[in-house]
Amino acid sequence: MQIRRYVGADEKELLRKIRADLGADAVILHSSYAKRSGLLRFFARPRIEIVAGGGFKIVKDYPNGEAPVAGPSKASAASAETLQKEIGEIKRLIAETQTLVSSRGGVEGPQELAEEFASLATTKVSEGLAQKMMGRLRTSLPPDALRDRARIRSTVRTLVKDMIRCTDGIALKPGRCTRVAFIGPTGVGKTTTIAKLVSIYAHRGREVAVITNDTYRIAAAEQIKRVAQLVGVPIRVCQRPQEIEQALKEFSNRDLVLVDTAGRSQKNSRRLDDLKEVLAATKPDETHLVVSMTTQPETVVDVAERFAPCGYDRLVVTKLDEAIKLGVVLDVLSRIQTELSFVTTGQEIPRDIEVADSARLASLILGEETL
């Protein structure tokens, strides 16, 4: 079952393309006819949008033209239930597509460009960002390339990749202790991220230690303690900046010290001032702001702006596996001018974490790869 959106000015040409793409049994699910606005209405042809589907298996062919008569059975009941589910799925897809068509303005240019614009919409890339990307395509590609679907997708992939600035995880410094602090709001996955990194670096033979300042949540301290004990890594729970300074002296011969800070609301200026004191005592080589993709993009951007005075220089994006679509990641990263260090893709320790890679993320955002 396939559902695709076609945009153009020639209805016969659109129908020909639909039959070529979806077969002779293609079904028209939705169509709209709109005249151009402004001065274009005097010169340009009307804009036609058609949503078509193919691959629907609703009617079965029988040798004698009639379906055999049979009594009810468990198998037929199961088939009926399956059919109902398929019909429900078709209705849902039609409703989503109609909403997409009606809520989004089109994009000027060839049909292939409009198809790519619609494809970005399905990944939840915002309309504004998608329009900007289409504008880049129109200015960077020659006219013939704007009718080449493969060339358009390749260029979009490059644009997405260029928007994602990455750094290679944590930069360990040979011969000295590297201090890395993790900051961010409550519930974004700081402690779980640190637990994963503790396991990974310890298993790589690095001398690792952990300092946690998150004394507000008992569960958080217990989680990181259990992981540290399992891999033989020392941990200190420090409430005050002076205790952090003492713990850092104790761990000065370690390769890596990971500092887990308590979650702070970006709207609580007093708690953010407390965080600055913790960081002043830590003197980190790197400070990673942790944000979750289950949060609205506008809120993530607000978090990044309000935590900026704390001096973070890396970004960790968590809970990719819980995001509805990964286009929201691109919206966030296009607005936060900070390099991405890690992404997390689940709760499993230490498996579900990856060093940020722009090519991999671009493929995930565009739906070309899965987690």
Descriptive account of the structure:
The protein is of the alpha/beta class. It has three domains: 1-58 and 83-103, no CATH class; 107-163; 178-365, Rossmann fold (3-Layer(aba) Sandwich), CATH 3.40.50. The chain has helices at residues 11-22, 40-43, 74-103, 111-122, 127-140, 149-163, 190-203, 218-231, 241-250, 269-282, 297-307, 327-333, 358-365; strands at residues 2-8, 27-34, 47-54, 178-183, 208-212, 235-237, 256-260, 286-292, 314-318, 340-344, 353-355. The chain has an eight-stranded mixed beta sheet with strand order 6-5-7-4-8-9-10-11, sandwiched between helices. Strands 1-3-2 form a three-stranded antiparallel beta sheet, sandwiched between helices. The chain starts with a strand and ends in a 6-residue tail after the last helix.
Going by CATH, the homologous superfamily of the largest domain would be P-loop containing nucleotide triphosphate hydrolases
What is the typical, i.e. mean, pLDDT? 84
Number of E-type strands: 11
Low-confidence stretches: 37-43, 58-62, 65-71
- Name the CATH architecture of the largest domain: 3-Layer(aba) Sandwich
Total discrete domains: 3
